[in-house]
Amino acid sequence: MVCKEENGMKKRIWALALTAVFLLTACSGGESTTGDFSVTAGEDAQTAAASGLTLSMRVPETLNPLRNRDESVDRILKLMFLPFIGQGENGKPEGGVAENWTLSADGMSLAVNLKQNIKWTDGTSLTADDVVFSYDTIVGSEEDAVYKNVTNYVASCTKTGTYSVTVNFREAFSNNISALYFPIIPAAHYQGQTEMDSAANMNPVGNAPYRMESYTMASSMVLVPNESYSGTVPNISTITVKITGSADTDDYSFSQGILDTMVTDSTSAGRYLAADDKMKGTAFDAGVYDFIGFNFGRDLFQDKNLRQAVAYVVPKDYIYESVYLKYAEMSNTPVSPASWLYEENVAPYNYDASMASTLLKNAGWADSNNDGVLEKEKENGTKEELRITMLVNKENTARNQIASRMEEELEAIGFEVTIDAQPYDVYSEKFATGDFDLVVGGWKMSEVLNLAPFFVTDGDYNYIGYSNEEVDQLLQTANSAIGEGQTLLAYSNLQKKLAEELPYVSIAYRQDVLLTSSYVGGEIHPTRINVFDGIEYWTLQQKG
């Protein structure tokens, strides 16, 4: 998977496929108190961990969600801070601290009315000042802060009333609103206190279902229900957050029953669930899109018959069951099936080796010398054999499995295939420079969906060299659509065309799994953007 910051056509709004580098630093100091919580150093927090829910995160350098740079810390802070505009399980904007919103006719601004019943844990009301302050804090945050990419979409945020703001976008873009999923923090508490070493940054004042009761430096944090929260009162009365050093530590701690939850991939999930039938695993979209790509720099794959022949021998049932262990949503387009924008009614290319052979025959390919490899006579009288290389990165076990099976399937219909398994750095270079025939690849797709970088002519991530004027126009229409109806229609038309054209053979969107111990019950609905979404509806049996 190649991940880097995107530039190019409409640079600010292109998908952000980033590998974030998290800098973890331990905090030190004495003791401070603010409101109903305390921060201490050098001793364990006095908690009811034995009877409460136990989660984990890395050592936080800050508990200000807008300055934070660590994903594990962000997950925990979501329990204490509501987003500006939330997202449903299908990624559609909804809820948060926003009551409703209206997009301008030109798509350049959004008028937002805020809910008027939201209180901070110090008893004060959330207002427009807090939203404006939150955006300004993001602007001043480090480049690798979790929510820094908001500034790629939003130019400014202005107060228009006590409970109303206007968000001005940098460009009219169909999915701008999806970029507004960032936490709101109280201006009065953090004003002049947003530096990493400020007292306020380690003393969170939030507005979500939980509040911090205590934090023991580099050891643990205790959360309890937020009495000021206007929504559903959480069922679980105590959450202890253990400070752990790595994902490996989380794995060990979960296996020993120290932690009640762990987010993991399909392989680890299968191992745990096979060992303990009382444990639960809830899958959710990981945002990783796997595909087989064609090199359009080769005349061979300019022929749609060849691309379709490849598509018809992708063994999706085998891949779903044996490679992904059923933790994936098989997809026929580059849009996640979990998304509200996914179009189901496209050409599915169900497995059909006979159809693949027919397409090759119709394109003039035949095995005239009975050596098992098809050939075709060229205009100059010479014969071209159907020999290809398939690029894959050797560290990715799943994609190597796919490549090996595809080698078998393609050779069965007359291809000669050489698998080019390379270390990630070499693989990335070869992919980016077009040194392949077929590639088994994947992209970490942005939550703010934009397919242009991958398929538009000369797009930054268009490593396959694909160019189609109609697709270029459909991409532009999808990106410039204004309003829900226009956006749905534009993405429907785009996906139908991509499924017909096959610049990629879409395989699947992989899923991660939220594992929960046998003690945890209730309604568990993790999402890609918030694995603890709806945690107030979880239940916990008595431990011990």
TrEMBL record:
Q: Name one GO cellular component term.
A: ATP-binding cassette (ABC) transporter complex
The Solute-binding protein family domain extends over 92-444
Q: Name one GO biological process term.
A: peptide transport
Is the GTP-binding keyword given for this protein?
Answer: no
Record's keyword terms, sorted: Signal, Transport
Show the Gene3D superfamilies listed in the entry: Dipeptide-binding Protein, Domain 1, Dipeptide-binding Protein, Domain 3, Periplasmic binding protein-like II
Q: Name one GO molecular function term.
A: peptide transmembrane transporter activity
Q: Which Pfam families match?
A: SBP_bac_5
Output the CDD domains linked to this UniProt entry.
Answer: PBP2_thermophilic_Hb8_like
Q: Which InterPro entries match?
A: Peptide/Ni-bd, SBP_5, SBP_5_dom
In terms of superkingdom, the source organism counts as Bacteria
Give the record's family classification. Answer: Belongs to the bacterial solute-binding protein 5 family.
Q: What protein am I looking at?
A: Solute-binding protein family 5 domain-containing protein
